[in-house]
TrEMBL record:
<dbReference type="InterPro" id="IPR026282">
    <property type="entry name" value="MJ1563"/>
</dbReference>
<dbReference type="InterPro" id="IPR000835">
    <property type="entry name" value="HTH_MarR-typ"/>
</dbReference>
<keyword id="KW-0805">Transcription regulation</keyword>
<dbReference type="InterPro" id="IPR036388">
    <property type="entry name" value="WH-like_DNA-bd_sf"/>
</dbReference>
<comment type="similarity">
    <text>Belongs to the GbsR family.</text>
</comment>
<dbReference type="GO" id="GO:0003677">
    <property type="term" value="F:DNA binding"/>
</dbReference>
<dbReference type="Pfam" id="PF12802">
    <property type="entry name" value="MarR_2"/>
</dbReference>
<keyword id="KW-0238">DNA-binding</keyword>
<feature type="domain" description="HTH marR-type">
    <location>
        <begin position="30"/>
        <end position="88"/>
    </location>
</feature>
<dbReference type="GO" id="GO:0003700">
    <property type="term" value="F:DNA-binding transcription factor activity"/>
</dbReference>
<protein>
    <recommendedName>
        <fullName>HTH-type transcriptional regulator</fullName>
    </recommendedName>
</protein>
<keyword id="KW-0804">Transcription</keyword>
<dbReference type="InterPro" id="IPR036390">
    <property type="entry name" value="WH_DNA-bd_sf"/>
</dbReference>
<dbReference type="InterPro" id="IPR052362">
    <property type="entry name" value="HTH-GbsR_regulator"/>
</dbReference>
């Protein structure tokens, strides 16, 4: 449900567009639109905001704001900060883009990759013991497990790289191929 109050803050057009677009992108990534919009608003804010200000600015229900803030806190994309003279909780976003990327990647890994690795390990063990499974199915399960484990290993390696060096690696893009042996991949 949407609440529109008289306390709504008028955002500059560019900020409105960013918040709306971030909300749409969040939906594409499987994140609730309100969660993504609140994250965008806090990311662009030059000061910590309280839940009431967030609700009024985005014209969303206070309960939706509260639930969205809890989710963002769980992802460690925002934090509570004290504001002198105000007993309410105020929030600010992580603004270091590499930290933000790292936290999102870690959260997605925990929610998506880790369970896939565990499930594929069980499936592979079962496929090796099950005489009724075809060689094709067995090979494809093993190939899927190898692939997901390789992605997981790559992730672990990348998270141990210092942020500045990781950004250099990202910027290299396909130029890194020059360092690999030529021939079949």
């Amino acid at each position: 449900m949407t609440e529109i109050t008289n306390n709504a803050v008028q955002l500059p057009i560019a900020v409105q567009q960013f918040v709306l677009h971030w909300g749409e992108m969040g939906g594409q990534w499987g994140v609730n639109r309100s969660v993504a919009q609140i994250h965008a608003l806090l990311y662009l804010s030059d000061r910590p905001l309280n839940a009431e200000e967030i609700s009024d600015t985005l014209r969303i229900a206070r309960s939706n704001t509260s639930n969205s803030l809890k989710e963002l806190l769980g992802w460690k994309l925002i934090r509570r900060v004290p504001v002198m003279g105000d007993r309410r909780d105020h929030y600010e976003a992580e603004v270091d883009l590499m930290q933000m990327l790292t936290r999102i990647a870690q959260g997605r890994k925990e929610r998506e990759i880790d369970p896939a690795v565990a499930a594929l390990r069980i499936c592979t063990e079962e496929a090796k013991r099950d005489a009724a499974i075809s060689d094709t199915a067995r090979q494809r399960i093993v190939a899927m497990q190898d692939f997901v484990v390789t992605i997981d290993d790559w992730y672990q390696q990348m998270m141990s790289v210092q942020p500045g060096r990781l950004m250099m690696l990202i910027r290299l893009g396909k130029k890194v191929l020059a360092f690999l042996p030529k021939g079949k991949s």
